[in-house]
Amino acid sequence: MISYGSQNIDQADINEVIKVLRSANLTQGPKVKEFEIKLAKYSGVKYAVAVSNGTAALFLAYLAAGLKPGDEIITTPNSFVATTNMMLALGIKPVFVDISLATYNMDERNIIKALTKKTKAIVPVDFGGQAADLKTINLLAKKHGLLIIEDASHALGAKHYGKKIGQWADLTIFSFHPVKSITTGEGGAILTNNKNLYQKLLLLRSHGIHKNQQGRNVMTELGYNFRLTDLQSALGSSQLKKVDSFIKKRREVVKWYQAELKNLSQIILPQEKPENYSSWHLYVIRTKKISDRDMLGNFLTNKGIGINYHYPAIYKQPYYQKIGFKKTNLLNEEIYQSSCLTLPCHTLLTQKDIKYIAGEIKKFYHSKK
Question: Rounded to two decimals, what is the model's pTM?
Answer without folding.
Answer: 0.98
